[in-house]
Amino acid sequence: MAEDAPVRHNQAASDEEPCAICLETVIDRCILPQCFHASLYVTHCGSHSCFECILSWVRAQKDTKRCPLCKTPIGSYIVHALDPTSHQYAIYRLRESSPVQGNEVPAAELVQVRTPPVDTRPRPTTSEIRQREEAAHRRRQCEALAFRRHIYRRRLYAKHVASNRYTRYRPYPGPAGFRANPTYARLLSTFLQRELQVWPYLDIPFLSFYIPAMLSHVDVQSDAMLDQLTEWIGDPDEARLLAHEMELFVRSGRGGLGLDQYDTNPWLQYDNAHP
Q: Helix %, strand %, coil % for the chain, to 5?
């Protein structure tokens, strides 16, 4: 196999140790990975290129190729052509050729493996990344809203989830809990801003705050709440289902990190939930 010409880096070598083989000034640094002898600096040697110093040493050994300093086996490759500015280097892999005939010295077949090319594609800007994230968020919102509409259209009730430390569901707090902990009203308001989009004719900004305020005084399943929801929505079955969904959301204790946290809750399950 034809050998690629070794890459040279004209290093200022006045303060470098000389090559261990030819004792000339170091030009192209070569490291043997098994013993990490960096003193094997391949250098200018008469009419030959620097890399040929170590290659000549490798070819001259009939048996295991060993470091000329410590006699440790060289291994299957040699690292050289170190570039401190780009942090790139070249690897020459050594493979033995055909068996030795007579006193013939086996020649090592050298295969140069370069480091992977640097990805030169332009990186997305902060604005482009933000636009992609916003587009993905809008897509998830649309999918979630379509699923919520399907639930009300098919009158699907979520399966009961017990309140325990495994599910992290808690008993519904009731009006006293809403008055004692404003977080319930805040999270439920966020939930309703999406949930009420199932009925586009509603005054969503008003109701998403008014309904949680009502729950500080009446229970979510009370006749007063169901009658009021029915008046707004126009369908008693859908009003009862909405009250059920609000209770389930509050009991879940989820949603503080966004509605995705609630939607992906493994305990939230419906029969025949797929549209």
A: 40, 15, 50
